[in-house]
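Journal club prep — side note

Before the paper discussion, L.F. wants everyone to see what a predicted structure for a comparable chain looks like in token form. Sequence:
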Amino acid sequence: MMDTASVDRIVSIVVLAVMALIVGLLAAAVIRGRLRSRALPGYSGIWLLAGMIVTLFAHIAGAVLATTDPSSPSAAAVPFTFALVQRLVSSAGLAMIAVGLLLAAMMRKQFDDEFLMTQRELAVARHFEFEAEERLRYLFDSTTNRVHCYRFDPPLAIDLPVEEQIARSYDAVLHDCNVNFAKELGEDSPDDVIGDRLGELDSSKDTAAHEAYFSAFIAGDYRLDDYDLIYETPDGEARALNVNMVGVVRNGLLHRMWSIEENTQRMRETREALNHRRRFQGLVASISSGLVMTTDAEAEEVIEASLQSVCDFVGADRSTLFSIDQASNAASIAHIWSPAGNPFGLVSMDLFPEFSKQLQSFQPVRIDDVSALPDTFKVDRTSLERFDLKSVLVLPLIVTGETIGGMTVGRLKEQKAWTDQEVGDLTVIAELFANYTFQLESRRALDEAMAQLKEATERLEAENVYLRQEIKLTHGFDEIVGESGAVLRCLQ
């Protein structure tokens, strides 16, 4: 059987092992950050660790001295009992542990108070977040603009080549949108379009427009501000959008793209129409002032310059002014502008039977594609093809209720669809040329008549002088003497 000393030593060793294990675990927890903030806040962990170390030290010393024989010289040399020292050290360690626990309790209470305060603040924040979300949803649904969000699944790596990012952009999926965007896609509710691919949009089907659009998005650090997206639908309809878009990028990955779009097609058309009217008004003013201020000697040059301006305005390759001789039913070119020269001579209107009827009835001849004319216009089509015309527009020159000729604008290289606006604009310009032609012809006729009158007057005066000289030579009155009025009149 073991004596009391042996039991004490075994107990001391077990206690020592337990204390060492506790201190080791506590130290490991502190080192690894397991006892931060919530578990042992503040300096409480340090106090607890220090107290346990001191207590452990007391137990180690107790275990060592417990193995020493009290009757040995070394034990006798100790002037005080070890039990007293052990109690003091253990008490100090316990006191430090108590301080650590007290600090932990105080700090825990402080953290609990802060936690409650944080919960209240979180509740308030959630309340405001809910209100903000409601306001955002209201704006989201009530705005006249189109709002949508596309997401990438999986997210798109932004370090990929631009071409690959553009290729993957077609696979982005609609995550959220408002009613206006859903209606643009032909549906009444966002639920009907959520999940659709970006590649299904009309704008994405215009490859060139989409590539330029997404390249600008990437170049702008995944952001677009007031970007004008101009594209053409598969049906050939022109569209214009003003886009503001921002990408959600985290850890080098593009997750979502939020976008606000405004349809600016009508505004763009209005702006283009205003610019067109401004250009047209400038063209009319230029032609009018040129025709009014030109002299007869400069008329040819001024008219050709005016025809060139007309071609530049409508994108034509050739323009002519021709007159029609009603007696011979033949047309002759009065003025022409064309880089290819003048291929016309005297042209019989019989080569254009149908078009001649339209001109005589004061109607414009409008041909977008000469080769597509029906067989009804077979003769006219053949004649136009002789002059290399792909598209042509002919406006009658009407003076005093009669078609005296016409103004033509034509395309020689490719077809052109003439718009109603262009027909109306060129009709106005044709009227300017018709009035100028009438005035020019009238002025030339008047000048010719005045010249003839002057010539007749000069001839009459010359004949009068000649007759006087004849009378004087053949019927002399030298022997007549008299100064009365009657005699003088007779002599005159």
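L.F.'s comment for the group: The radius of gyration is 54 Å. Keep this in mind when we get to the figures.
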